[in-house]
Design brief:
mainly alpha, 13 helices, 2 strands, binds fe (ii) ion
Length: 304
C-alpha cells in the first residue's frame, strides 16, 4: 500500500479500516514462538528505550494520525452514551448472520483489492485459524462475527466512531492509550468530573458499567448477547480495548468476572491481529460449514 495523506473527508481519514489494524500490528508486533503477547513490545525491537517506543506515533501514516486525532477529540462521554441510545435498540434491520457478513462485505474502501482482505475474508481468516487450532465451536463462531459491527460504516458512521482501540470515557485517560496528546482537544479533558481516576464510576464497578469509547465492539456485543457464551461475548465487546488487554490499564474499574474473562480476550487477540497476511479463504466453499455453525447458536434472523 502506498502512503497517502488523509482525505478531506473527516468521516474517512483512513483509506481503509485496515490501516488502523496495520498500525496496531506495528505497535504490538507478533510475538515469536514461545513469547507471550501480554505486554506491549517496546518499539520495534526489545532493546529500544521509552523515547524510541514513541516512534510508533512519529512513524504512523498521516492518515492514521488524523484518524486518532478525530477519534480522541470527538469520543466524549456524552457521545458514547448518545451512540448507545441511537444504536442499541437494534431497530434498524433484521437479518441472519451470514447475510450480515455479506452485507458488511459491500464495504469497499480505497485499499488495494489485490493485496488487501475483504471484510468477509478477514472474518473467515480469523475463524478458520481458530478452527485449525481446534478451538471450541462457539469460539470459531465468535471469530466469524467479531467485526460484523463494522456495518456501522455502511450507515454513515465516521471511521473514528467505528474502529480504533477503545478506552473508558467519563474518567481519566491512561497515558498508555495510543496518541494520548490528542485527548487535549477532547472537551472531557477540561471537565473535572471526568478527570479523576474513577470519574463517574466507582472502584471495582465492573466493565459492564463503563462506557468505553463507541465503536463496532460494543455494537456487535449487543447484537449477539443472547446467543453466545460469556467468554465469546467478552471477546466481542473488548477485542479493541487494548489499554486493558495489552497495557494492563483500568484494573481498578474491573470486577471479579472481568478479571476471570480477561484471559479469553487475550486468547482471542492474536487471531484477530495476526492472521491477516496468509492466503485468502474461499467463502463459497466455506459457506455450508458456517451456515450450520450459525444455526447451532443463532436463530435464522436477528435484530441489528
Ligand atoms: Fe474489530
Ligand atoms: Fe478484526
Amino acid at each position: 500500500m502506498s502512503i497517502t495523506p488523509p482525505t478531506n473527508d473527516p468521516n474517512k481519514p483512513l483509506q481503509s479500516l485496515e490501516e488502523w489494524e496495520d498500525f496496531m500490528k506495528v505497535r504490538y508486533p507478533e510475538p515469536k514462538d514461545g513469547e507471550t503477547p501480554k505486554k506491549p513490545a517496546v518499539g520495534y525491537a526489545p532493546e529500544k528505550t521509552e523515547t524510541e517506543f514513541r516512534n510508533y506515533e512519529a512513524d504512523a501514516r498521516p492518515t492514521v494520525r488524523e484518524f486518532y486525532r478525530l477519534n480522541h477529540t470527538n469520543q466524549t462521554h456524552e457521545f458514547s452514551l448518545a451512540k448507545r441510545r441511537e444504536f442499541l435498540g437494534l431497530k434498524r434491520m433484521t437479518m441472519g448472520v451470514w447475510e450480515a457478513a455479506e452485507y458488511l462485505n459491500q464495504l469497499v474502501d480505497d485499499s488495494d483489492p489485490d493485496t488487501d482482505m475483504s471484510q468477509l475474508e478477514h472474518l473467515l481468516q480469523t475463524s478458520e485459524q481458530l478452527r485449525r487450532d481446534g478451538r471450541p465451536r462457539w469460539m470459531v463462531l465468535t471469530g466469524f462475527v467479531h467485526d460484523l459491527g463494522k456495518i456501522l460504516c455502511l450507515w454513515g458512521e465516521p471511521q473514528w466512531a467505528v474502529v480504533g482501540d477503545t478506552f473508558p470515557t467519563g474518567c481519566a485517560y491512561s497515558d498508555k492509550i495510543v496518541f494520548p496528546k490528542f485527548f487535549e482537544a477532547n472537551p472531557d479533558s477540561r471537565d473535572p468530573r471526568y478527570q479523576t481516576r474513577n470519574g463517574v464510576y466507582t472502584e471495582g464497578c465492573g466493565l459492564d458499567a463503563v462506557a468505553l469509547s463507541w465503536g463496532h465492539d460494543e455494537y456487535i456485543y449487543h447484537v449477539c448477547k443472547e446467543y453466545l457464551p460469556m467468554e465469546g461475548l467478552y471477546m466481542l465487546r473488548y477485542h479493541s480495548f487494548y489499554p486493558w488487554h495489552r497495557e494492563e490499564q483500568y484494573g481498578h474499574l474491573c470486577n471479579d468476572q472481568d478479571r476471570a474473562m480477561l484471559k479469553w480476550v487475550r486468547e482471542f487477540n492474536p487471531y484477530d491481529l495476526y492472521t491477516k497476511s496468509h492466503t485468502k479463504p474461499d467463502a463459497k466453499a466455506l459457506r455450508p460449514y458456517y451456515e450450520e455453525l450459525i444455526r447451532e447458536f443463532f436463530p435464522e434472523k436477528i435484530r441489528w
